[in-house]
Amino acid sequence: MKLNIALLAGDGIGPEVIDQAVKVSDAIAKKFNHKINWKPALTGAAAIDAVGEPYPDETHKICASSDAVLFGAIGHPRFDNDPSAKVRPEQGLLKMRKKLGLFANVRPTFTFSSLLDKSPLKRERIEGTDLVFLRELTGGIYFGEKGRRDEGETAFDNCVYTRAEVQRLAKKGFELAMTRSKKLCCVDKANVLETSRLWRETVQAMEKEYPEVVVSYEFVDAVAMRLVQWPNSYDVLITENLFGDILTDEASVISGSMGLMPSASLGADIGLFEPIHGSYPQATGLNIANPMATILSAAMMFENFGLQKEGKAIRDAVNNALNKGIVTEDLADGGKSYGTKEVGDWLAEHI
Amino acid sequence: MKLNIALLAGDGIGPEVIDQAVKVSDAIAKKFNHKINWKPALTGAAAIDAVGEPYPDETHKICASSDAVLFGAIGHPRFDNDPSAKVRPEQGLLKMRKKLGLFANVRPTFTFSSLLDKSPLKRERIEGTDLVFLRELTGGIYFGEKGRRDEGETAFDNCVYTRAEVQRLAKKGFELAMTRSKKLCCVDKANVLETSRLWRETVQAMEKEYPEVVVSYEFVDAVAMRLVQWPNSYDVLITENLFGDILTDEASVISGSMGLMPSASLGADIGLFEPIHGSYPQATGLNIANPMATILSAAMMFENFGLQKEGKAIRDAVNNALNKGIVTEDLADGGKSYGTKEVGDWLAEHI
Ligand SMILES: CC(C)[C@H](C(=O)O)[C@@H](O)C(=O)O
Ligand SMILES: CC(C)[C@H](C(=O)O)[C@@H](O)C(=O)O
User: Fold this and answer.
1) Residue extent(s) of CATH 3.40.718.10 domains in chain A
2) For Mg(2+), which residues are the binding ones (chains A, B) (predicted)?
């Protein structure tokens, strides 16, 4: 297969972890006889510095004409204390999601047995946890009309959803559930919000197309509780943009494997793959960042092209490395640890 | 002191746990020489059955002319699967909050050493956890304009906040922080929402009035993570209605003492006090529900009248009962347990 992949390294540790994912992906390409054409482009604070905005048109052109985007991380501390600044890295993220039509954010949370003790939760609560959130990513209160009235004294944000937006996200949820344990949970706040009632009635109407899938409907506050109490009782969860933002982050810390969690953002034509961790500015350039989440994001990318064996080869290598202790210091528990680059090299060699 | 207290027992186990709180409050009144005039009124499913709506005008009149409201729980399973039904118990709740002006929901989360092992989190993560959320309760997306367009194909919910609404909530937050460890965390999503930016700038502007209080600003997704990772790093948190709904429920499960957590909803003139647990329909009438959360809500009520000794007397009695194992079956760990009424009797006798 011939693949054009846009490469958005971004800020902080982004470039370092992206380098390792490229190395491992190239090893996969070699082994399975694919050709990857990497197309680097600017994003985030790096793009603001270079051309004055976080998601330049040039970058969009490169992404839109690629088969997938591999993404590092964006964000820089100098923007952190001024959320109302005119130009900020996060705006690039939102613009990119919207312009590329990345409406479905896929956020798996699973456990690695060697990492269970890193979880803040008791072992018996998390063993076997393997759930996936599908978060709607281009609608809701993130993209509705927002502003001020009354000379700035009143602020508003509008949350809007159309039935079609709910349907395309829910369809991905039902389809994913069919490939897993056929359990789907629709998370909403239908006892208060009209948009949630639209979500619920739309999903309810789709149930008959997927008679094998058992659908449950739970309120977002109840899910926020049960995720901590019994995370392994969930499988596939679908939800709107803001609820997904909160709950996927909450879910990411329960497994103890947060530093390893990949994600995908899917649209009609193109997918973007990125680690869930941030740009971790303090670690920039120190060769200590854990590259595994980015490498597992590359695995998701191959799987999304239908290249299951390729994805599995990456996952197996990562499992191997974890079992053998070829890990960065965050996972070394005070024992021997390896650099970002060394972990990447080892994984590339063991593909 | 002469106190008029509206008594809203509500649904499910509500009446049973309220009875115990009345008994204990009467014991307090006797010991400290107060006079409590209880004024029962209908609410929730019970009110829908009796008069066709969940917060009848008659009930509002009784509440509005009282010094405080003691509330049990509302909700009945027959309404659960139809969130768009015309008349539902939760609507009564929202109407009550709005009409009584209960803009600040106070939700403490603390630990009892004898219950630490009930938490899904590891002991070392939760030891010493003692935090309070102040959730804005009469604004935001709960009460903004909502509806449908395009023949029902598009739904919208508007989130609106005025500076004055933020100020009165934040003021309570600063004041509470002054009585505790002087740490205040403002939770928002200022990197995306205009209402959050209003929250942040308003709180920032108030900082100079409380120079001793150290204020931090955190995004709601980050707080959803850190609450699970390091709950004992928080003290007082202030936030808007929907974020508060999600985060206070998340926080309630981390301490292991969820079944014991009280809450208060405060307005300009009147306070409402209620356990955070629900109406627990399966347990109705079985004399097994734990009355302690409701009894501790009564303690908050006395403290809110400035009657600190009275509140402490209740808390001491509850601690005593926990240490002596005078508990309902949810806390008995398979050992000897007592009925709802027996726990209430014991506490009333040991005031
Ligand atoms: C940075 C921010 C705008 C973003 C979001 O809220 O979507 C982030 O939290 C995420 O989840 O990717
Ligand atoms: C029942 C519901 C409307 C309510 C809310 O969302 O406020 C409840 O979850 C709560 O937190 O009191």
Assistant:
1) 1-102+267-351, 109-258
2) 221, 245, 249
Ligand 2 pocket mutation pick from B79, B84, B90, B142 by most atoms within 8 angstroms of CB: B90
CB contact under 8 A, A190 and B159: no
CB B80 within 8 A of CB B20: no
In the beta sheet, which residues pair with residue A185?
A: A216, A237
Largest pairwise CA distance in chain A: 63
Residues contacting residue B299 through CB under 8 Å, at least 6 positions apart = B262, B310, B311, B312, B314, B315, B318
Cα–Cα distance, B133 to B242 (Å, whole number): 13
pLDDT tens digits along A121-162: 999 999 999 999 999 999 999 999 999 999 999 999 999 999
What is the residue with the minimal CA distance to atom 10 of ligand 2?
A: B245
Domain with CATH 3.40.718.10 in chain B: 1-102+267-351, 112-257
Q: How many H-runs (helices) and E-runs (strands) does chain A carry?
A: 12, 12
pLDDT digits (tens, 9 = 90+) for A221-255: 999 999 999 999 999 999 999 999 999 999 999 98
* A117 contact B CB<8A: no
Q: Distance (Å, rounded) from C-alpha A254 to C-alpha B120?
A: 10
What is the b/e burial string over B102-120, where b = at least 16 CB atoms within 10 angstroms of the residue's CB? bbbbbbbbebbeebbebbb
**What residue spans of chain A are helical by DSSP H?**
14-32, 44-51, 57-64, 89-99, 123-126, 163-179, 194-206, 220-229, 241-254, 292-304, 308-324, 340-349
Distances (CA, A) of B247 to A97, A324, B243: 27, 39, 6
CA distance A124 to chain B (A): 9
Scanning A63-82 for CB atoms below 8 A from B yields none
Task: Identify the residue whose tokens are 């006090």.
Answer: B273
CB A136 within 8 A of CB A103: yes
How would you classify the pairing of strands B236-239 and B130-136? parallel
B167: distance to nearest CA of chain A, Å? 11
Q: Is the dihedral of CA B58, B62, B68, B72 positive or negative?
A: negative
Q: Which of residues 264-323 of B touch A (CB under 8 A)?
A: none
Rg from Cα positions in chain B = 20
Q: B242-258: buried (b, 16+ CB within 10 Å) or exposed (e) per residue? A: bbbbbbbbbbbbbbbbb
pLDDT at A189: 97
Indicate the average pLDDT of chain A: 96
Residues B236 and B134 sit within 8 Å (Cβ to Cβ): yes
Euclidean distance between CA atoms A245 and B224, whole angstroms: 10
In the predicted structure, residue A79 carries a pLDDT above the cut 90: no
Cross-sheet strand order for the sheet of B271-275: B35-40, B2-10, B68-73, B271-275, B262-266, B104-110, B130-136, B236-239, B183-188, B214-219
Q: Is A169 exposed, middle or buried (0-12, 13-18, 19+ CB in 10 A)?
A: buried
Q: Which CATH superfamily is domain B112-257 in?
A: Isopropylmalate Dehydrogenase (3.40.718.10)
Q: Is it the case that residue B258 has pLDDT exceeding 90?
A: no
Domain A109-258 classification at class level: alpha beta
- Helix residue ranges per DSSP H, chain B: 14-32, 44-51, 57-64, 89-100, 123-126, 163-179, 194-206, 220-229, 241-254, 292-304, 308-324, 340-349
Question: Which is nearest to B234 in space by CA: B179, B187, B297?
Answer: B187
CATH number of A1-102+267-351: 3.40.718.10
- Strands laid side by side in the A146-149 sheet: A146-149, A154-162, B154-162, B146-149
> Mapping DSSP to helix (H, G, I), strand (E, B) and coil, where does residue B107 land?
strand
